[in-house]
Amino acid sequence: MFAEERYNRIAALVASEGRVTVAQLAARFNITKETVRRDLALLEKDGILRRVHGGAVPATNASTSELSLSSREGRNQAEKARIAKAALAMVPAEGSIVLDGGTTTGSLAALLVQEAADQLLIITHSVPVAHTLIGSSLQLEFIGGRVRSLTSACVGSGTVARYNGFRPDVVFIGTNGVHPEFGLSTPDPEEASVKAAIVRSARRVVVLADASKLNAETLVGFAGLNEIDALITDVQPDAALCEALADADVELVVA
Description:
Layout: H1 3-17, E1 20-21, H2 22-29, H3 33-45, E2 49-52, E3 55-58, H4 69-73, H5 77-88, E4 95-99, H6 103-115, E5 120-124, H7 127-133, E6 139-142, E7 146-148, E8 153-155, H8 157-164, E9 170-174, E10 177-179, E11 183-186, H9 189-201, E12 205-208, E13 220-223, E14 230-233, H10 239-247, E15 251-254
Helix pairs in contact: 2-3, 5-6, 6-7, 8-9
């Protein structure tokens, strides 16, 4: 195989799989790891990918990269719907839950309007989630603050303080990354502060994360795996993440 063809195929693999490792590429193309590293260096120079420890991810996967809520709404819709349906089974018949901002929690909110009992109190700082719930028979507690335009969720010290005063039964939280060592992370420090407060407040923490979030690390960590109780995702995580989840006694649900 010519170097140019290999270059194009590696670029396509990174785009389709989200992450490649040096060892995988060396075996796939029957080349040395040193040759793989040179190829990855060239691809990084051309802006195709970003090298990380042991491999590479798409160039858009920088630690501070973050898609807007509207951009994420059309992605992985079927997978998010399955995750939301699985999460519905963890919603108590009565009591209180927190719904974090995000498209998967938004899907869960839509299901709750149809399925949940009137006795349930839902707490959220997400404007779109609140909008979905307004007008339903469910009880709604909206946590205000400064609305971050990229995610349409409230942030700031006031939002954090309000969550510090709650003790909900279950929280359903989104994340930009679930990593065996770094835990849960998100690109924005203010969003991370709110998420950390939500995790601290809860009796039970359920993470909703599609496959694109698995093994990802973004800029700001907000919780370790030992701080969560369950992870609902749409694919079986790799061995390293499965082991880390098991060590942290996290229930894994593959929807």
